[in-house]
Amino acid sequence: MIDWREKLIATAIHFGATLFLAAIAASVIFLLWYPPPFATMIGGSELFMLVVGCDLVLGPLLSLVVYDSRKTRRLLWLDYSVIGVLQIASLVYGVMTTAEARPVYVAFSMDRFEIVLAGDLRESELAAARDPRFRDVPWTGPRYAAVVISRADHEDALFEALSGNEEHHRPKFYVPFESQLENIRKRAAPLATLKQKKPASSTLLPAALEGVDVPAERLGWLPVRHFRGFWTAIIDTDTGKPVAYIDLDPY
Fold it and tell me: What is the model's pLDDT at position 229?
C-alpha cells in the first residue's frame, strides 16, 4: 500500500533543497551579474528562470514518483542520484548560459553608452587590450569604460565594424572612464530637453529617480544601446555615470 504521507514529506524535502540551490544561484545572477535594471533591459536571465522553474517542478514530482519506503536504501540512493545529477546539470546549464549573456561593461562611445555582454568579447580582442585593466571579463558586475579610437586606428576600426565587430566590442580601444568625463559632460543633455523631445519621459522619470540623492541641476541624460534596442540613462554630470535608467528610446 502506498504511503502518501511519506511521499509528500519526501517531495517537500526535495522541493526545499532544490529551492535553496536555486535561491543561491539567483542571488548571484540578479544581485551581482544583473544589477537592476539590467535583467529587465537585457533579458538574459529568462532562460535561467525557465530552467529553474522546470527544476522546481520536475525534481519534486520525480521524487513523488520514485520515493517508496519499501525500497532498499541502495535503490533509493540510486534513484535520487540520477535525479540529482539531472537537476544539477540543468541548473549549471542555466547559470552558464546566463553568465554568457551577462553585461560586463558599460562603455561610453562617442555620444552614448553601449552595454557590452560577456559573449560579445572575443578572447583575441581581450588579449589585444592596451590597458591591462580591460584584458579580462569581470564576474562581479559591469564595469565602466570609454571607447577612444585614435587616427591610426580608424581604418582598422571601420573595417572590423563593417564585419560586425564594433568598436565597443574591442577592448583595445578601451580607456579609463574618468578620462572621458569632459566629453561625457559635453554630450549629456539636460532633462528638460528629454521631456520636450519625449513627453512620455515625464511620467517615467519620477519613479526612476526616487531615492536618487543628486541635485536636479547635476542630472543629464544620454542614450543607452543594447542588443534589444535603446534605453535612456540619467547621469550625474559630476561623475558621468548613470544613476538611473528608463525604458525609453530617446531617438
Answer: 93
